[in-house]
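Exercise 7.
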Amino acid sequence: MDATSYSKIILIIVSLVMTTVANCTSVGFSKTTVVTVLSLDGGGVRGIIQATILSFLEFKLQEIDGPAARIADYFDVIAGTSTGGLMATMLTVPGDDNRPLYTANDIKEFYFYHAPKIFPQVSRIEFLNNVASFFGEVLGPKYDGDYLRSIAKEILQGRTLNQTLTDVIIPTFDIKRLQPVIFTTDDAKEFIWKNALLSDVAISTSAAPTYFPPHYFETIDVDGTSRRFDLIDGGVAANNPTQVAITHVTKEILMGNHKFSDIEPVDVARRMLVVSLGSGINKRSERYNARKASRWGLLNWVFDNGSSPLFNIYSDASSDMVDIHVTTLFQSLNAQTNYLRIQEDDLLGDTASVDIATEENMKALEDVGRKLLNEKVSRVDLETGLFQEVEGEGTNSEALVRFANLLSDERKRRQHK
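Solution. The predicted structure, written as tokens, is:
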């Protein structure tokens, strides 16, 4: 079934739902609180793009509410996959004063300082001259992951999932059970065996196949039994975790567990503010084609010219399908301005890579983030899959300023209840 067919099915479902909520307004925030969601895609070093945009948003929140304002103060849910999962943990990990340990700008600086050590660069000449390195890359992961594991443990300071300052949702995939494992703050508070170390969760969701080895750890349940996890990058299941976040919130409301239980499940999309940040893709550059791929064997699909076509295809397809479904949902409910997706779909050259962490490329990725802020708000075209500019909604920076004001108003409303 293609994306268009999925979209038609969603439209039918939404039409049925709308018959029960015909009297609701498109935004209707005055009666009760809204659910605020931040979603961060996977993408390795391309996370610099998202960190640049997050820095802008946090700065605007500080202009409104003062220098102590932090992203975690304004979002009920922060979902992140892979590099986005690492950012989600950094945004929500508490310091000794029970305030966010890191600012959004700290996260951007983290990439510039640590990414070259997470993804150590080897010149092409050195690579070709080192036969052992070549076969090691083909037969094993490109990076040993030692530095990623050590720095994740250092920056997250032994905190556990149930300690995050707002709810986080981080997808991973268990290769032993062949099923997604989604770590959430809500589950960690309810089930001891799901209360993993934030560092273990961040390492697991970042363990991209062919780039890093899988991550193994255990947790202990209330009766003393252990639960084993054998995890890889959540991007194989949900590289764009927006839909996972919306589904989680809906589930919590249906079960009566969510703090916004006065929101009707059928009205979730109308009562939700969602900011979804992509890490960029190179859709328009036509990196692969059938003529070239028709000559590929197993190794070429896993590794070709410094990247993994199979992993790139799965992660990009996952992100696109989520964006198509979520866009369809919000547009069908006439609540499209409640959903802001910022994504660059025309990355070229090194910027399209997940692991080229040279100073030059990282600065180029930062420039991509800044350029996105000045571009017009765009939404995915449900037929072509490409992003099209939306007339009348201004630039992404103007949309983020609008969201910042809505987030600030919502926070103040709750404080005065």
